[in-house]
Amino acid sequence: MPTPRSFLLLLLLATPFLLLPLAASAAVPTSNPDIDLEYLIKNAGLDDSTPSTPTDDPEDSAPDFPGLDADYDEDEDLFGDDDGSDESSQGPEVDEAHVLLLTAANFTAVLAARRHVMVEFYAPWCGHCRALAPHYAAAAAALAEQGVDVALAKVDATEEHDLAQAHDVQGYPTLLFFIDGVPRDYSGERTKDAIVAWISKKLGPAVQNLTAVDEAEKVVTGDDVAVLAFLDHLSGAHSDELAAASRLEDTISFYQTTSPDVAKLFHIDLEAKRPSVVLLKKEEEKLTVFDGEFRASAIAEFVSANKIPLITTLTQETAPAIFDNPIKKQILLFAVAKESSKFLPIIKETAKSFKGKLLFVFVERDNEEVGEPVANYFGITGHETTVLAYTGNEDAKKFFFSGEISLDTIKEFAQDFLEDKLTPSYKSDPVPESNDEDVKVVVGKSLDQIVLDESKDVLLEVYAPWCGHCQSLEPIYNKLAKYLRGIDSLVIAKMDGTNNEHPRAKPDGFPTILFYPAGKKSFEPITFEGDRTVVEMYKFLKKHAAIPFKLKRPDSSAAQTDDSSSTAEGEKSSSSNPKDEL
């Protein structure tokens, strides 16, 4: 298919009649037959030869509820302001004597010298990194005291850009565990005990033998969660299956015993047929007995479904366990602290019927550090008790419960959620009464009518009011819409992504610019990833528009007036920061 340039050139060569008026005019150089593009470059006051390149700044990442995602930039700004401007927010000084500081100069050498290294990629301004720091330092000290063959280290990713990029760091903090230089993600909680347990599990035997009662008592009182198998022998087929199950579960310690006295401490029925497996937890539901076939996959599935509490309170420490959980579908209870005792028993009892299927989370609504930002993310206002279902960040659908909160109604709501019987809810501003500007305002409720109109090619910017890049883009985007004004088949639109949601307009950071071709609205939109200039966006539209279009230019006298004002504007912008044209 000919491009606009080649098609126009073909017309010029094949039609002598068209050559006459064009030959009389020296305004269109033969080296650039795309008249619209020439006009746009000239009148937009832009020099397309030196386009600015958009930058990636963590402050403009899409607000996300990780694991409920990463996603976004995984989880920055969820729990509060991470700009690091307030020195008082740094907290007490942390003793990091056992934490290595890595840079590009020593990174490779340290990984070559130490077989096991955990590395934290952090940013000094990141609130989550500051919260992790004392736990990380304490874990390093504890492991050093125990003589464990591991080094804990950290990298300032804001200084060591190449190192962070080489290890695909998408958010802060990112924790990687290197064995012989090969990294794997750390998936545990961001606490000292969790880090120590996770590393100990990785470096120790898959299953530990418990032969003495005093050893068993330490496990019962010390481990938050533990798995014990009561076997006839400490080696053989059953022990091998248990070890294989242990390797499938990163965060839980597995034990085995042949001692009836040890088994009794774990509340195992001594009359039960061996092999027997139990999971012990420090919570209301203390003991869970495995009743499946003694195979590694079945045991691992049993542990995965039962290791978590019936309901998890969301905090900065528990966030990773929630966000990284293989169970993606969640039921969330939002309630203020003084009201929570009325509803938590109902949620806990409901959770017993959905083990391994749904994750139940309690969000303390009046907790400013967690409750406020998470409530804002879901569009919850006020402190009224709220129950909602959430599919996780894969498709980010949420479903609000309505009605009286009781055991029967919440169970029915959870079952309907599992069976996809609920109708999703999306945030939306009111539909504007007037929408006559060159850039059309889209809200959640109007996106179907404006953006998904099959008769229109639509370019949609999803922005955030606080986003610096969005603010820099606004005059450029407005200018693009101005030059494309009057083309009936083309709509230039914008949507505030912080107040509006729609399953067909998911931002990947701010701003996100999406194009929806006419007649193809059932397909995924095309993301604009070029330089954020009028000319580059125009080229993008010319390339992807399903309905061909031409600029509607004013008459020559108006064009000259517009040309002089645009030139002045171009001269003014040339002395400003290039980022203003991003």
Automatic annotation (TrEMBL):
Keywords: Disulfide bond, Endoplasmic reticulum, Glycoprotein, Isomerase, Redox-active center, Repeat, Signal. It comes from the Eukaryota. One of its GO terms (cellular component) is endoplasmic reticulum lumen. GO terms for molecular function: protein disulfide isomerase activity. Residues 1-26 form the signal peptide. Its main location: endoplasmic reticulum. Its EC number is 5.3.4.1. It is found in: Endoplasmic reticulum lumen. Residues 46-93, 552-582 are annotated as: Disordered. Residues 70-86 have a biased composition (Acidic residues). It catalyses: Catalyzes the rearrangement of -S-S- bonds in proteins. It is an enzyme of class 5 (isomerase). Disulfide bonds join C126-C129, C467-C470. Acts as a protein-folding catalyst that interacts with nascent polypeptides to catalyze the formation, isomerization, and reduction or oxidation of disulfide bonds. May play a role in storage protein biogenesis. This is Protein disulfide-isomerase.
